[in-house]
Amino acid sequence: MSEKRRPILAALDNSSLVHQVIDAALWLAKKQALPVQFLHTIEPSQQHRVAHGGNLTPNVRTQLLEELSNDAHHASKQLIAESKQLLAKAISLADTAGISAVNSLPRHGHLPQALSDLESDFSIAVLGIKGEQHEKTQGLGTQLEAAIRAISAPTLIVDANFDSPSEVLLAYNGSPSAQRALQLLANSHLCQGATIHVMSIAKNQSTAVSQVNEAVAQLGSNHIAIQQVPLVGDPLMTIREYQRCHSIDLTVMGAFSHGKLRGFLLGSFTTQLLLSGQGAYLLVHDR
Question: What is the rounded distance in angstroms from the CA atom of residue 27 to the CA atom of residue 29?
C-alpha cells in the first residue's frame, strides 16, 4: 500500500473506551482523507493444567485432556464470533461516517506483536488509555506500554472524554521526535479549524521563545490559529496546569526524545502525564 494511503489503525477491545477509540480513528481518517482499519486481538487462552497424581488412571487422564481440548475449542470459536461482531459494528460506524474500512479481521496473539506485524500497513495507531484487562487497575496497562514501545508509527491515545479537538497543544523542545511531531502537524490537516498552542518549556525564556518561533515558522503556512507559549518551569506541572486552564483536547508531543521530555517509559515523564493530564495524546517517535 502506498505511503499516502496507509490507513488509520484502531485497536479495539471490549473495554468502555471502545467507542472513543472508534470515534478518534474516524476523526483521524476524515482529517487525513484515509481509510480506517480495525484490529481486534484474541489473547492466547490460559493453559489448563491437569494433575498428574497417582490417583488418575491413564484412561481418566486422557478423558480429562479431551474434555479440556473440546472446551478450549468451543471457547475459541465463541471468542472469534464475538471479535467478528465487534469489528462488524465498527465497520458499520465507518460506513455511516462515509469512511472505507479495510482488512478488518480478528487476530490471535498479543496486541504489541500484532501492531508490530502490521506496522508497514498503517500510518497512525489509535489506542485506548485503559484496555479491557486494566480498567480497574491503577497505572497504565502493560499492553499499552508494550504497544507504544513496539512500533515507530505515531500513536493516538484516547480517554473517555475524547471529542474532535478544538484546542491542540504542541509540546515542542527541538528534539528529533518533537521535530517529527511538528512536521506531522505542518503537513496534515489535523489542526484545521482548531487552535494550536505551541509550547516550549526551557531553562530560560530566550531558549523557549526561540523554539516556539522555530515551530511557528513551520506551522504558519497552514493559516491555522496559533497561540505562542514560551515558558520556564517544571515541564510536567506546567503542561498539566496549561491543559486544565485552556481546555486542551489533544496534546501532541515527541516520545523517545531527550531532556525533560525524554521518551515513553525510559523515564516517568510521559507516564505521569498520561495518568494525570487531560485529553488525548498523539505521541510521535524519533525513529
Answer: 5
Pairing between β-strand 36-42 and β-strand 195-202 as defined by DSSP bridges: unpaired
pTM given for the model? 0.84
In the chain, the domains with their CATH numbers are 3-44+80-156 (3.40.50.620), 165-284 (3.40.50.620)
The span from the CA of 61 to the CA of 50, in Å, is 8
DSSP 120: G
pLDDT of residue 223: 58
Task: Print burial letters for 228-256: b (CB count within 10 Å at least 16), e (below 16).
Answer: ebbbeeebbebbbebbeeeebbbbbbbbb
Give the per-residue pLDDT at 144: 81
The total number of residues shown for the chain amounts to: 287
- What's the pLDDT band for 70 if we cut at 50, 70, 90? low
**CA gap 244, 237 in Å, rounded:** 11
For residue 139, pLDDT beyond 70: no
